[in-house]
Amino acid sequence: MFGKIEHIGIAVANLKESNKLYEKLLGTSHYKTEEVVAEGVLTSFFKAGPNKIELLEATKSESPIAKFIEKKGEGIHHIAFAVDDIREELARLEAEGFVLLNKEPKKGADNKLVAFVHPKSANGVLIELCQEIND
Length: 135
Ligand code: ZN
Known about the structure:
Helix content is about 25%, strand content about 40%. It is an alpha+beta fold. Strands 2-3-4-1-5-8-7-6 form an eight-stranded mixed β-sheet. Bound molecules: zinc ion.
């Protein structure tokens, strides 16, 4: 089942500057910075009520975030939904005809298993599913 919007991912050119900006905007400090080496991104997380904001900066030119900014500029990159069983949801979405970018979930930032649905099958919005890893 899909749950709440877990976070909104925002592509930024300069994480340090954007951290300052979002700290001012949200009136709270970011609580975590984390690099996802496999994706070539540096992320930082803010809490906003029950939801989060994830800022994403590219760490290399082949990073999907670098490509996104090159094409569209800074801005909303993806919307992430919390799901309780990511494999079940991926199977359901695939059966419904959605194009999955990941058939198998992978380890993402913030202790989550994540998988993405291609924006072309969701009205131009990149959708992330994420499931908390309980260890
Ligand atoms: Zn995300």
